[in-house]
Amino acid sequence: MKFVFSICLLIITFTSYTTKADTYRIVIIETLDLPLITSSTNAFINEVRLLAQDDVVQIERYNAQGSERKAKDIIEGLSREVPVDLIVSVATLATRAVFNSPSVDHIPKLFMTVADPIKEGIVDAFGTTSSANITGESHVLSARVKLDLFAGLLGSKKLSKPLNIGLLHSEYPSSANSVRSLVALNSDYPNVNLIPISTPYREGIDGVSQMGIEITNTLQGSQVQLDGYWLSTGPLIQADKLVSTLYAKTGLLPLFSESITSVKQGALLGVVSDSSSIGKSAAASAKRILSGEHASSIPVSRTQIYTVAVNVSSAIKLNMPIPSSYLKLAKNHVYQ
User: Fold this and answer.
1) pTM of the prediction?
2) Which CATH superfamily does the domain covering 22-139+274-302 fall into?
3) 128-146, pLDDT tens digit by residue?
4) In CATH terms, is domain 143-273+306-335 a member of 3.30.470.30?
5) Which pairs from 287-295 meet CB under 8 Å and 24+ separation?
């Protein structure tokens, strides 16, 4: 009788263990309400709930409205009554605030859509781990890859002189860093003369519109004869009708853009990370962290999945043949 009772107790304990669900609290802090940020976050949430299986995932989602200060306020205002299992920061300013806040040093952190985690001091190089309790993945291709793709496209046209290309950007950290990386490599590409053209960074959605107006005015007032421009990553690229407005006021088209939407509107060539892939990749890292791995043991990486897009109507306007290899790369992202 004693033996039977012990066996029954073992079965009950095992059944209870296998069906018990863990509860995790994930705090997401987004820099700004922009399409890439929003869609990447949505993809992350959907995937992390899928990977959680029977576990309970409680998600709190905050928006810093484009302000590093507001992101810090959100961090300081987090409830300490319930432990936070993971903080996910989306885009550069929110990530900077999280990374530099001592109050959350003990909490594992994961970032998405940060262009340059090296310049932010998170790691010394891609493929290495951070000394802090953080990991993540950059969504931006290296400047070398972008310039190689662009130079390959220019190779289809015989140029008598280098093209003057304005690098349009705001002083938002990822934008400014991206432009500096491109300019540093300019001498390796004799067919291209990259000319930085910037506008101050403005916070919030209204700030995005204001940046669009200001960069348009700056481009109109430029004394440099441009052949086209390059739309760099960052909030400015999200300004409503930026491409069509610039074309109407300057007659210039973007020759390269880090946005598919811009290619639809007239950019010749675009290379951009897919928001779904960004979110799913981050969710896989979140699963590892919630399962017990230290964030500081997971190397910070750069995305290897990206989308190429081309606009054939712009190619005709610019008398710029698009090689068949680029059309194959673009697949379902050939626009006119």
Assistant:
1) 0.86
2) Response regulator (3.40.50.2300)
3) 999 999 999 999 889 999 9
4) no
5) 287/48, 287/51, 287/52, 289/86, 289/108, 289/110, 289/135, 290/24, 290/52, 290/55, 290/85, 290/86, 294/108, 294/133, 295/108, 295/109, 295/110, 295/130, 295/133, 295/134, 295/135
